[in-house]
UniProtKB/TrEMBL annotation:
The keyword Flavoprotein applies. Its cofactor is FAD. GO terms for biological process: respiratory electron transport chain. Residues 41-222 form the FAD-binding PCMH-type domain. The keyword Cell division does not apply. One of its GO terms (molecular function) is catalytic activity. Keywords: FAD, Flavoprotein. This is FAD/FMN-containing dehydrogenase. Belongs to the FAD-binding oxidoreductase/transferase type 4 family. SUPFAM superfamilies: FAD-binding/transporter-associated domain-like, FAD-linked oxidases, C-terminal domain. InterPro entries: FAD-bd_oxidored_4_C, FAD-bd_PCMH, FAD-bd_PCMH-like_sf, FAD-bd_PCMH_sub1, FAD-bd_PCMH_sub2, FAD-linked_Oxase-like_C, FAD-oxidored/transferase_4, Oxid_FAD_bind_N.
């Protein structure tokens, strides 16, 4: 039972407003909404509200304001930092946007799509493809993550190096404000210089300033020529050097450029069915090069072969395989995408989502790896991620045989170890996963002073009662 009583009549009013499909009160039905997929947090809630449209979202928010009920906003619940999980008090109402799952418009002339917050990312990708276009945001959880969630966290993913983060893929928003007003900013305009760009205020705010209910998204010409290579490289500097070679040859063709350590690939081979050693010999460092162009005659395979041949002659690339089909390309991509699951099956791991200037990535990987092994002897660094945009997941796997609970008890020591080096390299402690509940205690040190004060003033102005996703983002 909740620690505080449910506001009088709240559940009855919610039931009358939303109907039997729109309100979950049975503990078994609520349970999946109370924990994150990493099992870092286990919350409690009064109920789960499932409004069917924006008007119902606004009505729920007004009712929450009237009764002083905190709201935890939830999309696909794929947050890596506990941003969509209620606290343990039992006072929160979880507001799920799963039923707002309509694509309202898809215009291949404007190259825009208007999608509701509950549309699954993969569904948006498929809708763009059916329209002869591309919606390029791509990440491991795209079969579960929703449009509202990826915008609220300003998700990055694999194609940031070419297309930018979620923020760069959004032209307009529809938002329910904390007082229950609906702001319709669903503008499809590339140019709209009319005062404050309010839409950017809600991207990355993780539901603390309002609830994104729909968005106008940018689409792009679909690729007509592609090439993909998995390469073993000499070291971290070689990985960055190869990226520079491809970028210098044709910057617009580089869709993704991903780094993987030998240990991370080893875990995938060991634990994930269907993944085999991709090259003849194991390597300590790998990169995945994904090229794409809307021009059918771009000659990307020839370009890739030429760049790789030059890099092999100079010892930058040790071995490589070019995908011969779309099926083989998907198999190679799967090695990268299964890293989180493989680490989970190997044992306990602590995840660090950090970014540094691209030129500093090799130094960051080397320094962090050495410092982490010194901090916890026998631990296994598993760095991987988006070397092309400076975002590396500097993860650490427990030593073999160590009690997982003992290892996880050192989580903040591990994060502090990584963050000290990242800060020295002018980086950020959160690159694409957001702050959520996990990293609020870091905000004062990293963003204190005028920056954090401005954030708090914005929060107080829009949500003076502090009911929108409380306990997230701000310390």
């Amino acid at each position: 039972m909740p620690d505080a009583p449910t506001p009088a009549g709240l559940l009855d009013r919610l039931h009358a407003l939303l109907g039997p499909r729109g309100l979950l009160t049975d503990p078994a039905d609520i349970a999946p909404h109370l924990s994150d997929w990493r099992a870092l947090y286990q919350g409690r809630a009064l109920a789960v509200a499932r409004p069917a449209d924006t008007a119902e979202v606004a009505a729920v928010v007004r009712l929450a304001q009237e009764t002083g009920t905190p709201i935890t906003v939830q999309g696909g619940n794929t947050s890596m930092v506990g941003g969509a999980v209620p606290d343990e008090s039992g006072r929160h109402l979880v507001l799920s946007l799963a039923r707002l799952n309509r694509i309202r418009d898809c215009d291949p002339v404007d190259m825009t799509m208007t999608a509701e917050a509950g549309v699954v990312l993969k569904t948006a990708q498929n809708a763009a493809q059916e329209a002869g276009c591309l919606f390029p945001l791509s990440l491991g959880a795209e079969g579960t993550a929703t449009i509202g969630g990826v915008l609220s966290t300003n998700a990055g993913g694999n194609t940031t190096v070419r297309y930018g983060n979620a923020r760069e893929l959004m032209l307009g928003l529809e938002v329910v404000l904390p007082d229950g007003q609906i702001w319709n900013g669903l503008r499809r305009l590339r140019k709209d210089n009319t005062g404050y760009a309010l839409r950017h205020l809600f991207v990355g705010a993780e539901g603390t300033l309002g609830i994104v209910t729909a968005a106008v998204l940018r689409m792009f010409p679909r690729p007509r020529d592609t090439a993909l290579a998995l390469c073993a490289v000499a070291d971290e500097e070689a990985a960055l050097g190869l990226f520079r070679r491809f970028r210098d040859r044709d910057d617009s063709a580089v869709r993704a450029f991903e780094y993987m350590s030998g240990s991370g690939v080893d875990f995938c081979v060991k634990h994930i069915e269907g993944i085999a050693q991709p090259l003849s010999d194991r390597a300590a460092h790998y990169v995945l090069v994904d090229l794409a162009s809307p021009r059918p005659d771009a000659g990307l395979r020839d370009m890739a072969e030429a760049v790789l041949a030059e890099a092999m002659e100079e010892g930058i690339v040790l071995d490589a395989v070019l995908a011969e089909s779309e099926a083989q390309a998907q198999k190679l991509w799967r090695i990268r995408e299964e890293h989180p699951e493989a680490q989970k099956r190997e044992g306990a791991s602590v995840k660090n989502d950090v970014s540094v200037p691209v030129s500093k990535v090799p130094e960051m990987i080397r320094r962090c790896s050495a410092a982490l092994v010194e901090l916890i002897p026998g631990s296994r660094p598993v760095p991987f991620g988006h070397i092309g945009d400076g975002n590396i997941h500097m993860n650490l796997e427990q030593p073999p045989g160590m009690d997982p609970a003992v290892f996880l008890a050192r989580s903040h020591d591990i994060m502090d170890c990584v963050n000290a080096i990242v800060r020295d390299l002018d980086g950020s402690f959160s690159a694409e996963h957001g702050i959520g509940r996990l990293k609020t205690d870091m905000m004062e040190e990293w963003r204190g002073g005028a920056e954090l004060d401005a954030m708090k003033r914005i929060k107080a102005a829009l949500d003076p009662a502090g009911l929108m996703n409380p306990g997230k983002v701000l310390p």
